[in-house]
Amino acid sequence: MAHTVYCVRYKKEMEGLDEPPFDSEFGQKIYKNVSKAAWDEWLNHQKMLLNEYRLQPWLPQAQQFLVEQMEQFFFGAGSSLPSEFVPPGH
What pLDDT, in 10s, does the model give residues 9-21? Predict the structure, then answer.
């Protein structure tokens, strides 16, 4: 049986992640509150952040920035877009 959660992003019961994305308290919080669909949405948003800010994900500063953005994306006011960002196709 699939793991279900009340998704903080979609505000409804949905299929949850198969396992916590990180071995930490924050990873458990995501596992218990974020759906697979919302996680996929985050991965696309994260890819945009990595590209637009030209982040090097192996650097601690970039990792910290991404964690802060993830926290805002799921549990805050939402992750902000870079000021220069132009959505594809525009």
Answer: 999 999 999 999 9
